[in-house]
Each structure stands twice: as structure tokens, then as C-alpha cells.
Amino acid sequence: MGIDPFEKRILFVTGKGGVGKTTVAAALAYAARDRGMNVCLVEVAPSPNMRMIFEREIPVYKEVEVDRDLTVLSIEPFRALHEYVGLQLKIGGAARLILNNRLLNYFLNTAPGWRELITVGKIWHLYDMKVKWSNRPRFDLIVVDSPATGHGLSFLKAPSVFMNIIKMGRMQGQTDDVQNMLTDPKISLLNVVTLPEEMPVNESITLLKTAKEELGIPTGITFVNSVYPPLFDEESQASYDELQKDGKAMERLKEVFPDRAKGLLTALESRQARVDQSEFYKNMVLDKIGPPIVSIPHLFPGRVDKEGVQKVAEIINRSIKEGV
């Protein structure tokens, strides 16, 4: 593969809505945990998917240990802003007094970009946290379930935008720290999740191109999710292909199974079409984006729970070890 994502400190995971982004983020967290790492899984917007995976409520802005060495934190921008102002002023009450000002609240509700900046700033804070009485990081790895592709670029772009606005003072230095975190290949990787379908693949190509060329953000793995594996092995596939060409054999099949042959053949053709589509778009990802790529097979049934996520984690760890 050439990239071991678990050598980094922060893994951002994005992708078009509905591609399984949260599932892959959670699977990465479990894969790292299974390697002995202490992991924080961050969601930047409350999602029912996270609750479904862990089968419990994920309260806003409260660290929840959902499993051994695996903590989930759902970031809410206003709460993050309260914490930030409190840390700067060293007095929590003063922060509440300032931020409860109606005029300031009106400004915050209408001003663009600050939510993204304060959210990425909180991720930097998690990255910078140390274990008490030690210089060891509080978390070995932070996995960020980032916004979907469109909003995801705005999310990642926010620090560089504010760097051009804030030219002096403490906040300039802090914004520089956040931007350096995003662009340092020793710290962060942006990973994208796609389905083997035209629109998600095209959006992934555009996002990664923009991230690399315009934002300078290092990119990692492309996860092609819900790939339909071949129904037959090579020998069986050859036999099935011969059967389809043999008109007499097909007629005989319909005679032997008069009520089922048509449905069976239709199901086989439909499944084969999904297999061919998966292969086509996997090759397109390889051609347009390039390696490393991890293929995640379609899970039956489609609903993903904690057990399903752990299966995906095993696939990820195996792929990385095999260098695929």
C-alpha cells in the first residue's frame, strides 16, 4: 500500500452522503484500537448512524467511552467556542457572559466560516492534549467523521481562509497551528469513501484534486465501499458462461425448473451486472485517483451495526498488512 494510516495522528474521513462514511470512520477507529492504540472518534455533526453503530445515545460535546480504548466525541461549534473563550480568559463565567450577549449571538448565527474553524480548532486541541504529568498524547489517534464532500471542503478550507484575515495576535498563531496540523503529512491524512457508482466516484476525484492542489492537504486511502464480490470462482464462472451460450441447456433448465428458472437467471444476471459495475468503477478510481485503495465488500444485510463495523475493521487491517 505504501501508506500506513496508523502512523499518523489524525485521519479525516469524508465522502458523498450515503456512501458509508461514518461506517468507515468507525471501522478505522476499531482497526487502530485493535492494534493497541487509544483512539478518539470525532463526529462533527450529530448523526443517527453513530447511535446505530454503538446502539447508544452519543451526547453532544461529552466524551463517551463506547468500548475499551475507544472514545467518541460529538463536537458542537457553540460549545467548542465557549470552551475556547474560557481557556483564553481563564474564567469560565466571563466566557458565558460574553457569549450570551444577544448581539454577538446574532453575529455568530449569520457569520460564515467560524463554525468550521472552531470545530477544526477543537480537533487540534484534542491532538495537542497530553496525559496528566506526562508528555504522552492523550489519544494515539483521532479519527474524524468529517462533513460530506461539498461541506467537507469548506470545513478543511476554513483555517487557510482565516489566516488571510487574521494577521496578528494570539489567534493568528493558533490558526497557523491548526493549518499546520491539516497540511503536515506526518500528522494528518484525508481519506475518502466512495461507492462503485458514477456520481460518488466523480465527487471523490474532484475533492481529492482540490484538497491536494489548492489546500495542500495530504491524502491517504480511497475506500471503495459496498463492492459486490464475484458470485463464482474462475472455474465456475467459465461453466456458467458456457451454460448461457448453450441454448439447449437453457431450455432444459427451464423444463426442469419451470417455476424458478426465469427468476433464478434474472437474479444471476442482476448480480453479475452489479459485480461488473463494481469492477468498472474500482478501475476508474485506480486510474483517476490511484492507489492506495481498499475495497470493502457489500455487507448483507445492508444495515451496519457494531459487529458489521468490526468486520470492516478486520478488512482494513488485513488490507494494510498485505500492502494492497
From TrEMBL:
Q: Does the keyword ATP-binding apply?
A: yes
Q: Which UniProt keywords apply?
A: ATP-binding, Nucleotide-binding
Species name: Desulfatibacillum alkenivorans DSM 16219
Q: State if Cell membrane is listed as a keyword.
A: no
Q: Per its UniProt record, what PANTHER family does this chain match? A: ARSENICAL PUMP-DRIVING ATPASE ARSENITE-TRANSLOCATING ATPASE (PTHR10803), ATPASE GET3 (PTHR10803:SF3)
Where does the record place the ArsA/GET3 Anion-transporting ATPase-like domain?
A: 9-171
Enzyme class name: translocase
Q: Which residues form the signal peptide?
A: none
Q: What is its EC number?
A: 7.3.2.7
Which terms in the Gene Ontology molecular function aspect does this entry carry? ATP binding; ATP hydrolysis activity; ATPase-coupled arsenite transmembrane transporter activity
Reaction equation(s) it catalyzes: arsenite(in) + ATP + H2O = arsenite(out) + ADP + phosphate + H(+)
Family statement: Belongs to the arsA ATPase family.
Q: Which Gene3D superfamilies match?
A: P-loop containing nucleotide triphosphate hydrolases (3.40.50.300)
**Name the UniProt record assigns to this protein:** arsenite-transporting ATPase
